[in-house]
Amino acid sequence: MMSKTSHLAFADGKILSVEDQVAVALRRLSSGESLLNIGVSFGVNQSTVSQVTWRFVEAMEERGIHHLKWPTTQEMEDIKCKFEKIRGFPNCCGVIGTTHIMMCLSSADTSNVIWVDHEKKHSMLLQAIVDHQMRFRDVATGWPGSMNELSVLRSSGFFKMCEKGTRLDGEEMELPEGFQVREYIIGDSGFPLLPWLLTPYQGKDLSDAKTEFNKRLSATVAVAQSALAKLKDMWKIIGGEMWRPDKHRLPRIILVCCLLHNIVIDLEDEVRDDALSSHEHDTSYKQQLCNIADNNGVMLRDKLSAYLSGRLPP
To answer: For residue range 83-110, what is the model confidence (pLDDT) as tens digits?
Structure first.
């Protein structure tokens, strides 16, 4: 932002410094207030607020992308250790979740039908994989609300890398009785059960071991739910219903909010206990179910269920 000459000015003619521009952009992203209200607060016109915000978004994409990256081998060892301490899952590399970014679009425009989700609202989906500190490690966004979690997952680069064996490809962990556990992530019932993605047991009258497994998994998945809730609460531009946004620019704004989310976590000494208190980020959305189950995923889940209940067979 410093390298670009700027003639953006306050209403009194004074040129906005880089610090002024960052302040305007952060206010816009964090408050979700209208361009008019923010302009009045800072003494600039609406177009200036819009230009400054977009300059900031572009600068963050160019210079801040390193704040959202897949863990190094050493970082991953710490992440796996911390996840095991949460609810006992060994060799777990993260938690996956999705959330809807709400949009107010014209129903008269037939091209907007693709953005209508299963709750009859217009939205854009964000898929995120988070670590134990609620830091985003991989995100995919821009997908229309008409898609489900399975479709978004399959369309993501993360899925393709996992299927090729170039992600979640670290060392296996050996458990008692010689049971080998590969690297994997955890998700809710909206995701498929895969060799590298564990989801809850579905159905009624589950055994004690399966019920216990689901409780542990749910408590671990809550880390992703809390991260998404925190993201929307702190960066309210994507937390409410956006008025007819530019659907080509919105994914870039979502990405920058995720970068800022991570920067805030990096600046904190540790995750506060109250940060995990809220899991609500899609309050008006019902849980969808995915019935796809890969045989290798079934085997891994069953063995982990037995291990966590202390009943791993010899």
So the answer is: 999 999 999 999 999 999 999 998 888 8
